[in-house]
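User: Predict the full complex structure for these chains.
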Amino acid sequence: MSETPPASPGQQDAPYAPTARTVPTRARERASYDRELVHSVLDEGYVCHLGFVRDGAPVVLPTLYARVGERLYIHGSTGSRPLRTAGATDPGMAVCLTITHVDGLVLARSAFHHSINYRSVVVHGTARRVTGADERRTALDAIVEQAVPGRSQDSRPADAKELAATAVVRLDLDEVSAKVRTGGPSDEPEDLALPYWSGVVPLSRGYGAPVPSDDLDPGIALPGYLARL
Amino acid sequence: MSETPPASPGQQDAPYAPTARTVPTRARERASYDRELVHSVLDEGYVCHLGFVRDGAPVVLPTLYARVGERLYIHGSTGSRPLRTAGATDPGMAVCLTITHVDGLVLARSAFHHSINYRSVVVHGTARRVTGADERRTALDAIVEQAVPGRSQDSRPADAKELAATAVVRLDLDEVSAKVRTGGPSDEPEDLALPYWSGVVPLSRGYGAPVPSDDLDPGIALPGYLARL
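Assistant: Here is the predicted structure of the two-chain assembly.
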């Protein structure tokens, strides 16, 4: 993956530049353009919600993604509608790709101030089909690694037929923002004496015990990268 | 909530009618229009990804939602862009609302057959501002209840000023589909003897111990509906 140059050489540490559509109209204090924060939110997930426009109407579909430097990659069947569209259109397809981690339920004394703690990243841009063999390999490995680090080296790589059936699409990290809410509820001062519990219920995500395939050779042990999850 | 009539009276048990945009071009066997399945996926979540079109480009934002019968409700500040748009446009705003639960990582011997187990629901339709006081109250209670059942009766209801600052938007469940993948990997027969672990890593979601606000009266015990989470 180190062969892939960043989308914006020399900009590795600078924040993303805010644009009209990445500056929220409200709760602006929650918005951030910090590159490290954006990367950390992206790197913690592997399922995004991809939005695009079809026949003038919005479509939002969940899909796997990977970050490689300043690029996001998604993939899919060459027969799937969004990937066909991204491939067929020149110069690409306008997309909005959103990743959200929900961290806690925020319970205020007032119904109005109920909220959630979360970290989200919204990426606006143009999805473009990747055609170079090396970049396609890099992207496909990265998509497997994003969900299960260590796995891409412990599975059979795609063969020519599988590669031909797989579309890879790239979205540069350029017009990007994060939004984060943390902490407890923001109750009105006059509500503090109300007899309602207030605070945060943290949410957790975890892994269950891996379930081997029925036809797995019993001599194949659980690999370390799965045991460590 | 029982006062709110279903969007399609008499259709409570029938599946949703497939349309051109709810029939996938691939993996059709994963698509379902079963009303009970759609409801169960919707009822298990409370954060959706809402897609709409602004200046011709897609926008996808995470937001809270609630299901009440055959309607979904979302809410937000009257100053937020999507809700302003839904209110300002007649006859409403075209949206796509998607909910996804990720249940497992599916590890095949081949990189190509890696997948995830998931349950998602995609709703296409028109979001319309709700103006009736009763329906707005129902919706706002339902949004709190969707995340924390029992909470709407154990918090201060919105006052007139808060209600005036809150936009409520409705989306009827009409053009809807679910998509579900379950089970183990689908390896190619010729890959079964490869020396790679294969199977499923289940994913779990849970709640941490509730964290009371610093200023909570220590005499207020954790309510049962939170202790049971």
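The longest helix of chain A spans residues 133-147.
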